[in-house]
Design goal:
CATH class of one domain: Alpha Beta
Strand content: 25-35%
Largest sheet: 4 strands, antiparallel
CATH topology of one domain: Alpha-Beta Plaits
Order of helices and strands: EEEHE
Number of strands: 4
CATH superfamily of one domain: ACT domain
Structural class: mainly beta
Keywords: Cytoplasm
Distance between the termini: 62 Å
Helix content: under 10%
Strand order of the largest sheet: 2-3-1-4
């Protein structure tokens, strides 16, 4: 038996009533519920997202559903050819005493 990583994605469900958010456990793993902002974050397998999203949208206490775009986002910053140099302006390093008002 080999271990296979399941591709998962988070789904943000905006709620009208937070009390019924426990019912969302049947669709996936409920990671977070915000009572103040009235939303819940659910993790589910990527292959089931489209079918479960339609079922979640039909619930009476759900106002909208959005799928996270995190796997599609390029997380690399810059590249090997993007070298840059940081410079410091000597005027910013002046030895002026700091006023108590600035603190």
């Amino acid at each position: 038996m080999t271990f296979k990583i399941q591709p998962r994605r988070s789904v943000i469900v905006y709620l009208k009533n937070v009390r019924q958010a426990r019912q969302l456990r049947r669709f996936g793993v409920v990671n977070y519920i915000s009572e103040k902002m009235k939303y819940a974050v659910i993790y589910m397998n990527e292959e089931d997202i489209e079918t479960k999203k339609k079922l979640i949208e039909r619930l009476g206490f759900v106002s909208s559903v959005s799928v996270s775009h995190w796997p599609e986002v390029d997380t690399t910053v810059g590249g090997e050819g993007d070298l840059f140099e940081l410079t410091i302006d000597p005027n910013e390093l002046a030895d002026e005493p700091i006023d108590e008002e600035e603190l």
